[in-house]
Specification:
By secondary structure, the protein is mainly alpha-helical. It has four helices and no strands.
């Protein structure tokens, strides 16, 4: 079950990185269209962020229970696998926040928009 969720996390992280790269593309039309679509769907994009936050908190709380005084090899493997999953879900959450933030920074209207006099 967790293997499928990890695949979902990696796929979501890849999508967020692709969106960030397309907003940073040197093609202005592509970057503006992608940022406009992200601003349009900002609220539905919060669902993966909420999923990543809940899963991240689950792994953070689970990490402390995996610490043992004299761990066996299996315990060490479980601990480091849990750390990998913790960092993966944190990166998923952080990259999603970055996508929404960069899309709003690239918006033509807003507090940072240039006003012609």
């Amino acid at each position: 079950m967790f293997h499928l969720l990890n695949v979902l996390d990696y796929a979501g992280f890849g999508v967020f990185i692709f969106l960030l790269a397309s907003m940073a593309a040197p093609i202005p039309l592509l970057a503006s269209q992608v940022s406009a679509r992200i601003r349009q769907f900002a609220m539905p994009m919060c669902a993966p962020l909420l999923y990543a936050f809940c899963r991240w908190q689950w792994f953070v709380n689970q990490t402390s229970s995996l610490l043992k005084e004299s761990p066996q090899c299996e315990d060490k493997v479980m601990y480091y696998r849990n750390l990998r999953d913790t960092y993966l879900t944190f990166l998923l959450m952080f990259s999603g926040i970055m996508v929404i933030w960069v899309a709003h920074l690239k918006s033509p209207s807003g507090c940072c928009a240039r006003k012609d006099a």
